[in-house]
Amino acid sequence: MTSPLKLSGLTKRYGDTVVVDGLDLELKAGRCHGLLGPNGAGKTTTLRLALGLIAADAGTVDLLGQRLPARAEVARERVGVVPQMDNLDPDFTVRENLQIYGRYFGLSKREMIGRIPALLDFAGLAGKSEALIATLSGGMKRRLTLARALVNDPDLVILDEPTTGLDPQARHLIWQGLRRLMGQGKTLLLTTHFMEEAERLCDDISVIDQGRVIVQGSPRELIQTHIEPHVVEIYGDGLNEWQACGSRHCHRCEQAGETLFCYTQTPSKVVAELAAHPGLRYLHRPANLEDVFLKLTGRDLRD
Ligand code: ADP
User: Fold this and answer.
1) Domain for residue 294, yes or no?
2) Can you list the residues of the chain whose pLDDT is less than 50?
3) Which atom of ligand 1 lies nearest, measured to the CA of 46?
4) pTM above 0.70, yes or no
5) For residue 60, what pLDDT is reported?
6) pLDDT at 218
7) Which pLDDT belongs to residue 148?
8) Given this model, what pLDDT does residue 18 score?
9) CA distance 211 to 59
10) Do 27 and 159 lie in a common domain?
11) Which residue in 56, 95, 168, 270 has its CB near the most CB atoms, within 10 A?
12) Closest residue (by CA) to atom 6 of ligand 1?
């Protein structure tokens, strides 16, 4: 089966800065692919290149079997896009927003009237058809933006930080919607800063930094390959004294703020060493995708 999206040697420069640097990416049909990376890594630029919204300086983009940029418009007819910022039209109702968007895909008012109930149902907005955008909560707006991306029944849905700014309840509803889309066989490509989101939803992940893919794999593969299986997070009085002796069972230690992250194969030995230090508190947990991400991209702030 052809890949819904294949990027080869993709390169984009702004002035002297190489923002996307020979990037290769191949999505598999019917799966969810996560694009992770710190701020400025080149994720949004990659998505814009993948959609043919900006031109690459080098490399190729094949979107749903069409070579871009020549065939971008044809390819985009089968793509749904959820942008980072909601850009719903505030002067119109929920229904009108869907209807107007349908026009971009050449859908008649009649066709849209047929599709809208299912889209509203998908978004959990069945009773809100005539509501103005300003009266919707942040979660409702995001769900409407997601439903709007489905007006053309796309094969591939591209989502740029679909849950940023949402509370946990609203985030879970979006996740539920995305899982339903995967159940329908659609391919998803999403960027996110939430590692839990990536771990839950994505079959495949590419971590990018400075415009390059630094690792690729399933969440489980990345955790197994790049990080020790256990983490003991330690904080409190006497951390420095403890570190001098107790950290010998840590395979790798990282300090972030007041917390020492102790990555280890033998957590029981680390915890045993902590018993004699009542001033210290700790949390023992399995290593997760965030640990991998921080190891690979560092803990320094990126603006
Ligand atoms: P991410 O989505 O991973 O945060 P972006 O793709 O938005 O990263 O940006 C990558 C880099 O490219 C940043 O340093 C950003 O400032 C720069 N950049 C993005 N768009 C433009 C543009 N239109 N002109 C100049 N620089 C840009």
Assistant:
1) no
2) none
3) 6
4) yes
5) 97
6) 98
7) 96
8) 97
9) 13
10) yes
11) 270
12) 42
Both tokens assigned to 168: 């946990």
pLDDT, residue 166, reads 87
249, 264 in Cβ contact below 8 A? yes
Query: What pLDDT is attached to residue 268?
Result: 93
Question: Residue 176's Cα: distance from chain center in Å?
Answer: 15
Distance 273 CA to ligand 1 centre (A): 46
Total domains in the chain come to 2
Find the 6 Cα to ligand 1 centroid distance in Å.
21
Question: Same domain, yes or no, for 234 and 209?
Answer: no
Please report the pLDDT score of residue 244 as a whole number.
76
Residue 43 maps to which CATH number?
Answer: 3.40.50.300
Is 14 close to ligand 1, i.e. is its CB under 6 Å away?
A: yes
256 within a domain of the structure (yes/no) = yes
pLDDT score of 228? 95
Residue among 32, 79, 5, 31 at smallest CA distance from 197: 32
Q: Which of 13, 19, 47 to mutate to test ligand 1, by most ligand atoms within 8 A of the CB atom?
A: 19
Is residue 148 lining ligand 1, measured as CB closer than 6 Å? Answer: no
Instruction: Map residue 53 onto helix, strand or coil.
Output: coil
Together in a domain, 168 and 207:
yes
The per-residue pLDDT for range 85-105, each reduced to its tens digit, is: 889 999 999 999 999 999 999
278, amino acid identity: P
Long-range CB pairs of 257-264 (<8 Å, 24+ gap) are 259/233, 259/234, 259/235, 260/233, 260/234, 260/235, 261/231, 261/232, 261/233, 261/291, 262/231, 262/232, 262/233, 262/234, 263/227, 263/228, 263/230, 263/231, 263/287, 263/291, 264/228, 264/230, 264/231, 264/232
